[in-house]
Structures are given as C-alpha cells and as structure tokens.
Amino acid sequence: MGKNILVIDDDKLVRMTLKRLLSKESYRVSIAESGQEALSLLETNPFDLIISDLKMPGMNGIETVKRIREYLEQNNKSPVPEIFISAYAKEDIYQEALKLNAKDYLEKPFDIAALLQSIKKAIESK
C-alpha cells in the first residue's frame, strides 16, 4: 500500500508537478497551498511524510512545521518526517530549517532522482 505524503507549497505548478510525479511512484498525495490548509488536512488524514516549501505567504514553512509538530504532540500522534524545498536558499532560513532537524532540504529546481531518494530515505526512517 502506498504511503501518504502531504505537499505544502504556494506555487500551483509545484504542487501539481509533485502530485503527478509522486502519484506515478505509487504514493498517495494530498496538497495544501498554505500552512493553515496543511493543518486542517492533518486533522483528518495520517501522513507518512511532509514536503514543505520554506517561503510562503502568511505562515512560512518553518512556522508550519513547528505548528504541525505541536499538533501531533498535543494529540498523541507519531511524529512525521519532513523535507523542506525552496527556490530561495537564504542562509538564515536554511539555518532555521537545519535547527528543526528535518530529514532533508532540497533547492528548487531539484533533481527528481534526488527527491525520490530523499523521500524513500525519510519514510524508511519513520
């Protein structure tokens, strides 16, 4: 049975591309265009992995992941590994992402093989 992946990105093209790519790899993919939408999806769906953009309007990827972790802990749910993706590799945001100990950080445009390897590794670590 395929694993459930939540993709959070404000860019529609990125969301649709990742959904298509990951669905072909037998993953079940849910998409959210904001951190708030991701939190809503988390209330009704279990996920095996979260892939989140770092730079989004409103709640950025760092804040989104922090809120997701709080929600999971408060509701006695297992932690979910995260992979950050970003086209804006600003050093301060990258350092914040590293402090969260996410499973990986990939710069857009990312290599598909590297992304798939990162996903497999992150899900296996759960």
Automatic annotation (TrEMBL):
Signal peptide boundaries: none
Modification type 4-aspartylphosphate: residues: D53
Stretches assigned to the Response regulatory domain: 4-123
Database matches in PROSITE patterns: RESPONSE_REGULATORY
Origin superkingdom: Bacteria
GO BP annotation list: phosphorelay signal transduction system
Keywords: Phosphoprotein
UniProt name for this protein: Response regulatory domain-containing protein
Origin species: Candidatus Ghiorseimicrobium undicola
